[in-house]
Design brief:
Number of strands: 6
Number of domains: 1
Radius of gyration: 17 Å
Order of helices and strands: EHHEHEHHHEHEEH
CATH topology: Rossmann fold
CATH superfamily: Phosphoglycerate mutase-like
Oligomer: single chain
Helix content: 40-55%
Number of helices: 8
CATH class: Alpha Beta
Distance between the termini: 41 Å
Shape: globular
CATH architecture: 3-Layer(aba) Sandwich
Length: about 230
Amino acid sequence: MYKVVLLRHGESIWNRDNIFTGWVDIGLSDFGKIQSQQAGKILKENNFIFDVAFTSVLKRATQTLEIVLDKMGQSNILIEKSWQLNERHYGLLQGMDKKEAVKKFGMNQVMAWRRSFKEKPPALVRGDPPLTESLEDVCLRVVPYWEKEIVPCIMKGERILISAHGNSLRALIKNLDNISDKDIENLNIPTGVPLVYEFNEKFEPVKKYYLGNDLEIKKEISKVENQVK
């Protein structure tokens, strides 16, 4: 039996302010730091020990990881950072208040940009690629990275923690659970709550569960779901 822990970073300053973030490098809010400490505490209480941690290059994910590992007393493990685990690039929506985006573009369009598999927000007119991404685009970078870099570590018996983002984790979970393009629209991942996957000897997922208080987890999922409402 193999176990892997997935963790969406704690609340960022722009999560708190309900702003599209994407690749903009925003740090954690005070509450996000508390969430990260709580995640580390509950992982320690459940006797998790990690050999390698994977994270994006964005500081809200790396800060979360640093706080979690410090709380667990495991700050000296190997940490691998990769842009392939970055949040989805939200194009021209980056920096825009989500409710203001609804007023400008309409609820249906904003929800399609946020949750559908193939829809891309309007692209940036300049800057480094990508200029915008769909969730499908995120899958095309996350899944190969998972298969090439992370799975071999797991198969060697290394205990893995992944600190990433809402959409990079949605992309990974879509692949792990074979979720349809339509059904992925309904998947919302709470900030700062460890999600444990258990795999059998054939490396097939057989069980997954969040660590923490069920009512609080549902509350956090609801917050993500209702950000534009």
